[in-house]
Amino acid sequence: METKKIWANLGVEDLDRTTKFYTALGFEPNGHNTNEQLRSFLFGDDNFIIHFFVKDQFKWAVNAEMADLKLGNEIIFSLSAESKEEVDQWLIVVEKAGGKIFAEPQEYGQGYFFGFSDPDGHKFNFLYWPK
């Protein structure tokens, strides 16, 4: 057996707010996954998919156990940047879209990053790591 694809499924409170946020960041909607219970976006060169489900509809998938993102993390997705300057540009875009910055831009080893959460508290960072 061989796994062909991996994607993420996350619960959200408001699909329209989620759609507005990720559209403002410039991520492409995964067109065939748009309805009253689900929105989906493509991330990166490999088109990694993140599905955003209305929390009430998503509880079946996690046996009604949802993480309280105010108390901890479920996962942090890392998004690559080509330079430190691009990381700083993403910071402006994320703030303008309404993202919450939880880690200001900073050096990390040879790299440079900042961390943010979306309107539902899902955590991401933009990271530049020299080749």
From TrEMBL:
PROSITE patterns given in the database record: VOC
Pfam families hit by this protein: Glyoxalase (PF00903)
InterPro entries named among the record's database cross-references: Glyas_Bleomycin-R_OHBP_Dase (IPR029068), Glyas_Fos-R_dOase_dom (IPR004360), VOC_core (IPR037523)
Domain VOC, residue spans: 4-129
Name of the protein described by the UniProt record: Glyoxalase
